[in-house]
Design a protein that fits this description.
By secondary structure, the protein is of the alpha+beta class. Helix content is 56%, strand content 15%. A 3-stranded antiparallel sheet has the order 1-3-2. The longest helix is centred in the C-terminal third of the chain and has 17 residues. It starts with a helix and ends with a helix.
Length: 96
């Protein structure tokens, strides 16, 4: 269990944050996000619904696909980006 997962309390939520809350992160449709995170689509969907309720994540439709991205206008966006960045540095350095 890495530090971001321990802080967030959920592997699936930590993976979503890791993928979406980095500078220039792409938008992801559900199955691509699940594949990148290494988790099932229903698990990712459940976590995305929670993040959508908190308005941390946005969704938009592109044809018959629904894409998800970080809400860059949210007050916590820079904080979460920094948390993800710092957790990545700790993981690289082998601490925690």
């Amino acid at each position: 269990m890495d530090i971001l997962q321990r802080i967030i309390g959920s592997q699936s939520r930590a993976e979503i944050l890791r993928l979406l809350f980095t500078p220039d992160a792409p938008t992801f449709y559900l199955r691509k996000l699940a594949r990148e995170a290494g988790l099932s689509a229903p698990v990712i969907h459940r976590e995305l619904q929670s993040l959508l309720e908190l308005e941390l994540v946005r969704q938009n439709s592109d044809g018959n696909r629904v894409n998800f991205s970080a809400n860059t206008g949210h007050l916590l966006y820079p904080v979460l980006c920094e948390l993800v960045r710092q957790a990545g540095l700790i993981k690289k350095n082998g601490s925690a």
